[in-house]
Amino acid sequence: MQEILQVKNAVKQFGKGLAGVKALDDVSFSIQKGEFVAVMGASGSGKSTLLNAISTIEPLTAGEIKIEGQSFSSLKEKELSAFRRNKLGFIFQEYNLLDSLTVEENIVLPLNLQKVDIKTTEESLNRVATALGVADQLSKFPYELSGGQRQRVACARAVITNPALILADEPTGALDSKNSRILMEQFVFMNQSFESTILMVTHDAAMASYASRILFLRDGKIFSELLRGQKDKKDFYQEILAVMSELGGETDAV
Amino acid sequence: MLFKLAFRNVKRQIGNYLIYFITVSLTVALIFSINNMIFSDVIRLTAESLGSAFETSTRALLFMLSGFLSVVIAFVLGYATSFLLSRRKKEFGLYLTMGMTRGNIVTIFAGETAVNFLLSLGMGIFLGMGFFQAIVAVFSDFLLMDYVFNGYSLSGTLITVILVCAIFLLSSVFSMLYLGIAKISHLLQGEKSVEKTVKNPAKWFVVAIVSLAILIVSVTLICILLFGENVGGNAGLICGMGALSALAILVFYLSLTKCIIPLLLKRKQFASRGTNTFTLRLISGRLSANSFMTGIIALLLSLAVIGTNIFSTQVAAQVESYRQHHAYDCLLSHQGYTLEQTDIAQMISQLEKHSDVKEYCHYFVYESEERTLNPLVNPMYADEDKFIKESDYRKLCAMLGRRAMDLNGGFLVIPCDLYTYWNGFPAQNFSNATLQLNGVTYPCTGVVEVQENMANVYMGQVIAVVPDEAISQELSIIQTTFAANFKLFAFDRERVSQTLMEFSGDYGFSNFYVKEDVPSYVFSTGAPIFLILLFVSAVLALLSMAVLALKSMSMISEDKAKYKILWRLGADKKTVGKTLFFQLFFFFFAPLAMPVLLNVPLGFICTGMAALIQGKGITLSIIVGELAKVTGALLALYALYFVVTYLLALLDVKRSVHSAE
Fold first, then answer.
1. Which of A77, B52, B171, B324 sits at a 20 to 30 Å CA gap from A39?
2. Shortest Cα–Cα distance, A192 to chain B (Å)
3. Rounded Cα–Cα distance for residues A113 and A127 (Å)
4. What is the span of the domain harbouring residue A47?
């Protein structure tokens, strides 16, 4: 198995001295190619900081992060942008689609930034748009789509470059339960069909149960880790609830 | 509580309020200066010298101008207020959800804008006082009057305050009404606009082409009518064509903004390169939403370019005409009285007291009893042949810095009258001409190309340059001329004039001139109209740029979230900056394209006007030079505004991107 992401002794401190807060405290883990990993934790547990650090947006105070074996801590701004463009795909809670661009233009934007030729761009567009069920929406603007459709467009944009790692930040946060379920099925589909490696931050146990592995964060540290293995979704969900109960006692705490 | 909130808001939104403050202050300053000008002493004093008709017409023109500017200012002020409102919508929506009443938010907004407006009004009047004195100084200078401090008119100030306050209240009322009825959800959406696909861009393209064709035809017709035989009779038609041109510019922009980007987006090869689609979509959204505003700005800038160009080219033409007719620093010529060498020596010694004489030429014009040459210019002219010596001709050429033509054993012809020369001098008539002088026959070996009144002889006539030995006792001296250049151009003109007058002689006909720094007649009667044109042009250009800057800042405020997404998707900061540059560049410079292109017909119109007023000696190159200067100045000012706006927008976007880090 190829190691896609390696986080080694990651520390992120905000502020200095007594007023300083460690958002990440010696976090280490790795993700193999084709894995679908969820990160759970209460507010302030450090999940967003971890995601920002992996997405090159937030530099670490100490430690190292490697994606496909390449560390990016020493890269310059321009190289970091290229790194983000070529290695990462993003799916955000608020979709982050550009409302002035059509669905098609939104999806192919990362390829345009990579200066990929038109023929390849169109082939990739057809492949992901068909797979994610947005092929008939290409000429529309985001405001003409439902929340679920918008998130699928965001997924298509994230996978079109075949990134090494897809980072999803609370992707179901703005969706109802039906659309959340559909989106998670798309994630599983992307994971299986495109062999996409996904790291998803969520607070929803039901959504996390679609992942193959779950990391639980508490006070900036990895508190626990769950592997789905051969378990079915329902059993895995119960296990998640149990860890969550251990984590803070209340489901709401997560 | 509400006052405290309003005060804190103003403090927090200082950037937005600064833009509002600068725009409104500038606007008030301009209207204040023009309203004070209406009642100023400079107009009254000019009227005394030029007649009361001037006073009535200039004041009426200034009143009309003030009215016209009020309309433009209402547009700018209304725009500035709506700019502030658009930046605050989300915040007001939030206040409403927190339980504030609509009355509360209207009070907050009214309080903030009123405080800001009053400060801007104060600053505008203060700036306007300076503007007014500057305009008076320029006006006095152009009219060759001494500048004296002009008192401020109470009527002018009151008119300004009432006018600006009324416009402000009117624009505020609309904003208040909007705040009073707008849905909370709409307010919470803030400045977010919904993108719409332009239907049938090809049709809009056809409309753009048709309007451009109408513009070209109407401008061509204006040119034809202006230089036709019955300009006065066609005045109505010319005005109609002018209005049609203005309408065509407006429609052209309305349609072009709706078609150009959709058509570019259809070119996949181009659109798919880097951030092109992103940029084009941003421009498309902004342009189609602001197509009317873009058209209006293009129209205002066109008027500004036309006004300034007409002013500058006509002044340049007058100066050039003056230069052509006043070739030397000073000149004295006598007919019927001969200045001898001793007189010249005395005169130079007198002149040297005022300024060092660099070079001079003292020459005689001789006349024979023959009538060979002048009838060749026009059979009606039957004056006797006139001559100057080759050595004098060479001296004159040296003084003018021109290469003297060789006589090649014959004689040269100099047309003495610039008007005749430029309007078709029959040079070919002289090809077979000969002169019998001192027993020798001289053939005509050339015609001197005239660029200035070189020999200062008789209107409508020619003078022959002959070898010195051809001048015999048989020829009579009919004119003595003394021309001189000084080492420095800043010589005492009054004293030089007095000296020349002393040597003018007591009998015969004599005339003299002293070349002036600013030719006195250049700015006499046309000056007020030209100055007003220049002022209006400057106001239109400045206000257009102010509106563009406001719109750009408001636009970037809406778009910065998009740039943040672009950055997150992997566009580096340089690409983000470049994309922002192109977006703003297109938005800023699109309205300037038409005014710049209008320079082509303007070149012809201005050259034609100059030829009508000053004669055909005013070459296209002088006019083109002036057009280039005016356009260059406008572009420089525009570029300055653009750079400042771009840097502020870049800062705004960078801040937004940094907030993601």
1. A77
2. 24
3. 19
4. 33-61+78-253
